[in-house]
Amino acid sequence: MQNLKSVLWSRKLWRDFRAWMLARVTLFFPVTIWKHWEPLVPTIPMCPFCDQTNVDLEHTCSHETMWPWILMDPLSVQELRAKVQHFGYIMRRVLDL
Fold first, then answer.
1. By CB neighbour count within 10 A (0-12 exposed, 13-18 middle, 19+ buried), where does 34 fall?
2. CA-CA-CA-CA torsion for 64, 35, 11, 28, nearest 10 degrees?
3. Do 30 and 90 meet the contact criterion of CB atoms below 8 Å apart?
4. DSSP string, 37-92
5. Does residue 16 surpass a pLDDT of 90?
6. β-strand pairing of 43-46 with 53-56
7. Residue-number span of the structural domain to which 57 is assigned
């Protein structure tokens, strides 16, 4: 895979990348990336896709992707970009941004 230092991404995409990495490590919602001083949370009160209550990251991501594909190691920079963009989209829906 190409070195990430040479990749030209927008600030938004780099923020999504940090959130994606944090979620991969913790399996928690990386709320702190968008809302400073907020903790990482293991569950959210309601899924924005199906209105089920008290859901975890796996449940939320499974609506829009093939879980666990979104958090697996990417094979290329293009695949990494797709995963990061999609994860950012999901998190903005979750956080209502």
1. middle
2. -40
3. no
4. TPPPBSEEEE-TTT--EEEEHHHHHHHHS-TTGGGSPPSSHHHHHHHHHHHHHHHH
5. yes
6. antiparallel
7. 8-95
Please state the rounded mean pLDDT for residues 53-80: 85
Answer positive or negative: Cα dihedral of 66, 19, 12, 45. Answer: positive
**What is the percent of the chain with per-residue pLDDT over 90, rounded to a whole number?**
32
Question: 97 pLDDT band (50/70/90 cuts)?
Answer: low
Q: Give domain status of residue 3, yes or no.
A: no
In a domain, 2, yes or no: no
Q: Is 25 helix (H, G, I), strand (E, B) or coil?
A: helix
* Rounded Cα–Cα distance for residues 84 and 86 (Å): 5
Residue 26 included in any domain: yes
Work out the average pLDDT over 51-65.
86
Residue 87 domain flag:
yes
Residue 84's identity, in one-letter code, is V
